[in-house]
Amino acid sequence: MTDKDGTFGFEDLERAFKKTVSKFDSKSDAMLMAMTNVARARVRANTPTNRTNKLKGSWRTKKPKVYGKARVARIQSQNRYAHTVEEGHNIVSGGATVGRNGRRLNIVQQRVRGISVGGRTRPVKMIEKSMKELKSAFGKNAEKLLDELTREVQL
Predict the structure, then answer these.
(1) Residue-number span of the structural domain to which 138 is assigned
(2) H-helix or E-strand containing 67?
(3) How far apart are CA 74 and CA 33, in angstroms?
(4) Are strands 70-72 and 65-67 parallel, antiparallel or unpaired?
(5) Which of 88, 130, 138, 143 yields a CA-CA distance of 20 to 30 A from 113?
(6) What is the pLDDT of residues 50-83, one digit of tens each?
């Protein structure tokens, strides 16, 4: 990779960069999927259980895709109420707090209809907790990937 006089040429550097870029996509996707599977396991562990365990078993991973300049692998629930467990929700009894026209009912209208809002559930934040736990591990794995790629190219 060096010239006759012992210098490293731009052509050699360009070849090394192209070789690194060609390997980057597959290796970064593999690392991202591995981290996504670990994150899914953590989310499942942090998910509260009830008698059916449907929410705990509903977490799925999606393959990495490129959105703009970022590679993104998703963890999502197939359950329709996962976001209410994550963020919490109002405890409502006696009917809906939204009228037929889609507008929110005021307090007087709610009382006339017998609707009561009895507080708010505590948010569980299972996804947020899991992502905080894995933040440092992701950084370490990304550094390891870059070291591995540069070692293979021998820059």
Answers:
(1) 10-88+123-153
(2) strand 65-67
(3) 9
(4) antiparallel
(5) 88
(6) 888 899 999 999 999 999 988 899 999 999 999 9
Contact 39, 60 (CB under 8 A): no
Calculate the average pLDDT of the chain: 86
In the chain, the number of structural domains is 1
Which residues are CB-neighbours of 84 under 8 A, at least 6 positions away?
121
| Cβ-based neighbours of 97, under 8 Å, separated by 6 or more | 90, 104, 105, 110, 115, 117
The answer to whether position 23 is within a domain reads yes
**Contact indicator for 121, 91 with CB cutoff of 8 Å:** yes
Kindly report the backbone phi and psi dihedral angles of residue 64, in degrees, each rounded to the nearest multiple of 5, phi listed first.
-65, 140
pLDDT digits (tens, 9 = 90+) for 16-44: 778 777 788 888 899 999 999 999 999 99
- State phi, psi for 106 to the nearest 5 degrees: -80, 175
